[in-house]
């Protein structure tokens, strides 16, 4: 049992009741037990004392949509038309991905994520045992799911479904509870209706949530209407997907009625501003989703379409683009963007004790070095986090009270090995 | 006389004839004399040899619109309606700015800029002697101008004009040529026509270019039409402003005909995507400007409306938002965004020997540490610079062949003093 106390810290809690605390935070193993501007009295002894001078502490960031292994294709074939990029660069190389590729690509992404302050992420990919092992090793949290494309013969469909079920069973609740799982038909435009229904049934059987891509491009929405007579939201609702707790990624092209349907079914939306801009998919109606009461969080998508995994940038993009596009300087203020990147992300993947700093919450938190020009003057730290900070400002990262990054160095991962192997896998794939 | 050779470097030159060089770059005092994948022969002796392993070298970034002193108000009153922010937060505090405030605010910005790889910037503000002294001390380049608002009695107008003229005369070509000057009526909506004409006349007399804000908000464009019967471009053309070499900031709201007029007069446009988004001014027609052949560069605007001075972010925003808003994934590709932030910026402020790496060019260049997860795999360094890098990746900065940042540390400025004084000035201003 270890009780740790941080002194002289500045804590941006993302807790409306006490948004800014200057002073002390204590945690006992995985749980925050003290948070106050006053020093705790001696009746609560602490084993470890840390000095938080010049550090800003905040909840760890939650990335609610990623395909981590695709970092192996970062910068490979950028600035091509979408279909050329997908058909000539991404799909042929992804088809060649072995377990080894997924392992090193995922580790490269996890290395970048934890050093940049992301403590939890959603991953949807293939060879998921490799992903789960990487998450277990890293010390971060993962909400993981075998994403299945159903454009294949029935026996391959069945094999993918069984793989997804087996993975979900094997890993749900593992790594001291840091890993949870979901069921994921890849998207309405890549999965026949009956294939989606089988995933929904499996999610019922296993009592798991659903994750899928939805309404990322206008083209796919129009094709869905043409093929099924319904836009994607009604189509997925009809297939029963929203009868399970659900997280959908993108949701760029929505009507008012679709927004209302998402709210009625309490569907969570992962907004991916960087990826949506880079792939020219459009600008999601985030201010309208928030106004309707839909739970919105942030995802990077893969670093092949982003091209980094810096969640500070996603918060900043969310705070900037909706102002610029709507003409309303009050759209998605910094306080809201910070919630999208932290507590909303945690709620979106059903982590009730993650995403804010408060007594009783999990000790998932990060520290930023704020003794730098771009954090001055000391005017408004929420503004500074959202409008000025970057992943590179993160110095320390804790998950479940365990430190996994110290002074910018990953403690759980072999950085040199990961960088070497990732480069090697890229060369083997593309040469 | 010092001849320096960098070995084992990767050079992104922004020179179309040899965009990527892996090997050697030599410079003699302020000028690049060698750039090749082959080692120079012994007939050219070098006094200093530097190792460039794991470093990516590129031209220094050029920020073509800034009000550096306003960093003192970073994060002060964010997320308010534009008029409330201006009238209650910015203007009353700026009115209180003394020379001391401008000195420390400017130094705070210059510290952030040089550490982040910006080697040249445009500054438009008041107390410009302080700004020029800060630039001289820092070792960076500045294209500086006393911005004058003409909404004041004739004697105050005249005083501002004389101040602007005196400053321009005193500092043009100073600091070993690193400082140049311009004439700047603040904006059409803050300057009566005859006041603008006086600045144009002074620019003719002194043979200097012009800099002004133009068409930042739709509101100001409509007001200009109402007041003068002309949109801002025709209005400024009529007042003779474009008879001088001109750089205009923002240019968000333009008609096709205005774009054509800007091209005809060879007016340079400083695109400020971060500031335009944050202040909800809109999205400039950058793809159309580029297609028309207008010289477009990038500016941060002040860190009160950005909120940092990271030019990598401005390149990334320029590359992302125009794709997302236009629906064209080929809009402003990374190669173009990199030019906007480097060679176009240099040309925009009439620096012909800055902005690319090539023999005969000035040794204004920066190094990035690319031995990091977000720069892997080694697929496309232009993509990595634009879509993945940040100011915090910069390790070394050279201007005129003199090193001003080494291993992330500013060599010319007293960082601790600047941070202390900037915070103190903020507290004095706002308490």
- Assembly level: homodimer
Rounded to an integer, what's the Rg of chain A over CA atoms?
21 Å
| N-C termini distance of chain A | 51 Å
Largest sheet of chain A: 9 strands, mixed
Total count of domains of chain A:
2
Strand content of chain A: 15-25%
Structural category of chain A is alpha/beta
Number of strands of chain A: 18
Taken from the alpha-carbon principal axes, the silhouette of chain A is: globular
Question: What name is given to the CATH topology of the largest domain in chain A?
Answer: TIM Barrel
Q: What is the CATH superfamily label of the largest domain in chain A? A: Metal-dependent hydrolases
Helix tally of chain A? 15
Enzyme class (chains A, B): hydrolase
Keywords (chains A, B): Hydrolase, Metal-binding, Zinc
Catalytic activity (chains A, B): S-methyl-5'-thioadenosine + H2O + H(+) = S-methyl-5'-thioinosine + NH4(+); S-adenosyl-L-homocysteine + H2O + H(+) = S-inosyl-L-homocysteine + NH4(+)
Domain Amidohydrolase-related (chains A, B): 57-403
Architecture overview:
The structure is a homodimer of 431-residue chains. In chain A, 39% of the residues lie in helices and 22% in strands. Chain A is of the alpha/beta class and 431 residues long. Chain A folds into two domains: 3-60 and 359-410, Roll (Urease, subunit C, domain 1); 61-348, Alpha-Beta Barrel (TIM Barrel), CATH 3.20.20.140. In chain A, strands 1, 2, 3, 4, 5, 15, 16, 17 and 18 form a nine-stranded mixed β-sheet that branches. In chain A, strand 1 (3-12) and strand 2 (20-28) form a beta hairpin. In chain A, helix 4 (154-171) runs parallel beside helix 5, helix 11 (311-326) crosses helix 12 (334-341) and helix 12 crosses helix 14. In chain A, 62% of the residues are buried. Chains A and B meet through helix 2, helix 9, helix 11, helix 14 and helix 15 of A and helix 2, helix 9, helix 11, helix 14 and helix 15 of B. Chains A, B: It holds the Pfam family Amidohydro_1. Chains A, B: Substrate binds at residues 94, 146, 186, 216, 301.
